[in-house]
Amino acid sequence: MPFPTGDRHWDGVRQYLEDQAPGLARVLAPNEFLEAFPGVCPYSVSDHLPPAAFAYVVIHKGMVQRFNTGFLADVLAHFHPVFADEVFVVLRPEASEDSGALRETDHVKALVELAGQWAEPAPAPPAAPRTALVVTTFDRPLSLARSLESLARLDAPMLVVDDGSSTDARRLNREAAAQMGAAYLAMPSNRGLCCAINTGVAYWLADPSIAWISVFTDDIEVRADLLTVFAAVQDARERPLLVGRLASEHPVFGEGTIAGHRVLYQRSSPGFPLHAHRNYWRDVLPIPTPYLGAPKRTGGRPGQGSEADWWIGSWAPRSITKRGGFIVCVPGLVRHTGDGPGASTWGNSSGGSGADAGR
Questions:
Q1: Distance of alpha carbon 345 from its chain centroid, rounded?
Q2: Residue closest to 316 by CA, chosen among 307, 303, 304, 329
Q3: Within a 10 A sphere around the Cβ of 138, how many other Cβ atoms?
Q4: Do residues 232 and 260 make contact, with C-beta atoms less than 8 angstroms apart?
Q5: In the CATH scheme, what is the homologous superfamily, with its name and number, of domain 130-343?
Q6: Backbone phi, psi, residue 321, to 5°
Q7: Does residue 87 sit in helix, strand or coil?
């Protein structure tokens, strides 16, 4: 939409931002400001990002209904007004010399009143965070059927991503998914484990009610209380990535107890499942594919699998390890069934020890 040049209120805010905001400062404002300020995001982004993501919040009093109500309340409680007139109020995290006086003006008081009218009169108690499951599979229908039978005990929505299995395997996979109440998504051809995970996680990210997503391969069995234990240990900020199995080849850097559960702290994971908050998945996606169809016996460098687990936990620029944190392992929640070395599509001698087992 074109900027309403000539309107003194809009022009006033634009002049303020030109004088005060750095060129690429992150600003939440009506989309009309985007052409002049490339750091602008529209009000609808308040459904997805916290106030802390923004250096300035520009509020048009006639548009408060476009905000996420929790976001707006947080801004009014913790940000400071730095510009105000009959139409706009601009706030930022740091106070200016005029912030105290501005807060007492009719301009800001009118905004607070409007925001209070827009907020829900009686907010419902927050719902328990929902978890969804992704199960990747490729040409292992018997293993998939066993895994789905185990995973169905978790009573969580489940998606099977069939990574281009053969015709007969695809039919059996679809039947197994239907029997266990899982959604089924067939890839047109075999693109590899990384692509399958990207696809499956994106499917659940489209549903804002899903807070946590667990990714499994098709050769696992789980304890029936896996999600209950994860729910007790997980934290979107401090512990956004959890695993449920310990492997000796991955060093442990410490241990502790959270909500009565023994946890270990690691910088790399022993494959899947990987259980992460939706914001963490957004930070590490897309997972790059080292070569088409990975993992395979031939492809890439000798012995190179999909490397998906390494990217998610350790290598991605915004992975928990690169942030200086740890992957949290709650051992004993998962075991790989495995079918021996012959079941691996890429020559994995363990047949069931890591992210690429059984592929």
A1: 30
A2: 307
A3: 26
A4: yes
A5: Spore Coat Polysaccharide Biosynthesis Protein SpsA; Chain A (3.90.550.10)
A6: -65, -40
A7: coil
Closest-CA residue to 50 (of 23, 30, 78): 78
**Vertex 279 angle, CA 274 and 285, to 5°:** 65
Q: Could you tell me if 194 and 309 are in contact, meaning their C-beta atoms sit under 8 angstroms apart?
A: no
Return the number of other C-beta atoms located less than 10 Å from residue 167's C-beta: 6
Q: Is 53 helix (H, G, I), strand (E, B) or coil?
A: helix
User: Do 313 and 320 touch, CB atoms closer than 8 A?
Assistant: yes
CATH 3.90.550.10 residue window(s) in the chain: 130-343
Q: What span, in angstroms and rounded, lies between the C-alpha atoms of 340 and 337?
A: 9
Please, are residues 314 and 207 in contact by the beta-carbon 8 Å criterion? no
Phi, psi of 49 (to 5 degrees): -120, 150
Query: Looking at this protein, which amino acid is placed at residue 343?
Result: A
Note down pLDDT in tens along the chain; length 359 residues. Answer: 789 999 999 999 999 999 999 889 999 999 999 999 999 999 999 998 899 999 999 999 999 999 998 999 999 999 999 999 999 999 999 999 999 999 999 999 999 999 988 765 555 566 678 999 999 999 999 999 999 999 999 999 999 999 999 999 999 999 999 999 999 999 999 999 999 999 999 999 999 999 999 999 999 999 999 999 999 999 999 999 999 999 888 999 999 999 999 999 999 987 789 999 999 999 999 999 999 999 998 888 888 899 999 999 999 999 999 999 999 999 999 998 875 444 555 455 444 445 565 45
What is the separation of C-alpha 185 from the centre of its chain, rounded to a whole number of angstroms?
20
Longest dimension (CA), the chain: 75
φ, ψ dihedrals at 230, nearest 5°: -55, -45
Residues 85, 322: Cα–Cα separation, whole Å: 44
Residue 230 has which token pair?
């994860």
As a whole number of angstroms, the distance between CA 194 and CA 336 comes to 19
Residue found under tokens 């009118």: 110
Rounded Cα–Cα distance for residues 134 and 196 (Å) = 9
| Tokens, residue 198 | 């990207």
Question: For the whole model, what pTM was predicted?
Answer: 0.79
Nearest to 143 by CA among 166, 169, 182: 169
